[in-house]
Amino acid sequence: MRVKGGVKTNQRHSKYLKLAKGHSGSRGLLYRIAREGVERGLCFAYRDRKVRKREMRALWIVRISAAAKELGTSYSRLIDALNKANMAVDRKMLADLAVTDPQGFAQLVQTARGAFA
Questions:
Q1: Model-level pTM?
Q2: Radius of gyration, alpha carbons of the chain
Q3: Where in the sequence is the domain holding 44, given as residue range(s)?
C-alpha cells in the first residue's frame, strides 16, 4: 500500500498559502502559483534588507551635504575635517543632527574646522 502523505502535504500547502495571504488572484489561492510568488517575494525581501542599508546611507549623506553647504563647506571637506579632528560621529548621527538640531550641527562643523585649521 502506498503512502500518500496527505497530512504533511496539506500542512506544506497551507504554510505557503498563509504566506501568500494578500496576494491577488491565483497567487493567493492556488498552491503552485502561491509558492512561486512567496519564494520570489522572500528572495526580494532578503535582497532588499541589504539595499535598504545602502539607500539609508545615501540619504544620510545627502542630508549632511545639504546642511554642510548651508554652512559654506562641502560634504567631503566636512568628513575630512571630522576625521582629522578625531571626532567619531557616524553619518546617521550627523544626518539626525543636521535635521533636528541645526545649531548643534553648525557648532560641530565649527569645532571640526577649528581642529583641522
A1: 0.77
A2: 26
A3: 6-116
Tell me the per-residue pLDDT of 40-74, one tens digit each, with 9 for 90 and over.
999 999 999 999 999 999 999 999 999 999 999 99
**What would the DSSP string read from start to end of 10-40?**
HHHHHHHHHHTTT--GGGGT-HHHHHHHHHH
Domain membership flag for residue 103: yes
Q: Name, in order, each residue with C-beta under 8 angstroms of 91's C-beta and a sequence gap of 6 or more.
A: 57, 60, 61, 64
Task: Give the number of domains in the chain.
Answer: 1
Judge whether 54 lies within some domain: yes
Instruction: Answer for the pair 89, 108: CB distance below 8 angstroms, yes or no.
Output: yes
30 inside domain: yes
Query: Do the Cβ atoms of 104 and 97 come closer than 8 Å?
Result: yes
